[in-house]
Write a structure and sequence with these properties.
The protein has 126 residues and is mostly helical. It contains 6 helices and no strands. Helix 2 (23-44) runs antiparallel to helix 3 and helix 3 (48-66) runs antiparallel to helix 4. The longest helix has 22 residues, at 23-44.
């Protein structure tokens, strides 16, 4: 239900005065977060098809927003690739998982001021 509400409201593009927060961008952000959280929950409750579908949608939306290269110190893209890799593993497709893990390492390595330590996802989760 939340997804359908965000999708419908997002389609209604209303011009806003300069300086005001763009409501459409806020709905897009909420919808992205919805897919991420649904993927995370599905991954941890052993719903492999739903986790893969949700993370694929999330990463597609994230790439539409930020492109294929991270900006500054934002780890979102690298972490997203890692989580999509976990979803592929859960769906017993290790070659797709490996590709995602490599993209995660590349993305995290491209961060501003990145060090080898930044590539350790266990550090990101602590």
């Amino acid at each position: 239900m939340a997804q359908s509400i965000c999708t419908r409201l997002q389609k209604t593009r209303v011009p806003l005065p300069a300086g005001e927060s763009n409501l459409n961008d806020q709905f897009e952000n909420l919808l992205r977060r919805f897919h991420h959280h649904r993927g995370e929950l599905s991954l941890h409750t052993n719903q492999p098809k739903l986790s893969l579908s949700s993370y694929n949608t999330f990463i597609q939306m994230l790439r539409e927003q930020v492109g294929d290269q991270p900006r500054g110190k934002d780890q979102s893209l690298g972490v997203a690739w890692n989580e999509l890799g976990c979803a592929y593993l859960q769906n017993d497709t290790p070659l797709d998982a490996e590709e995602c893990f490599k993209k995660s390492i590349d993305s995290l390595g491209a961060l501003e001021g990145a060090t080898r330590r930044d590539l350790a996802l266990t550090r990101l989760r602590s």
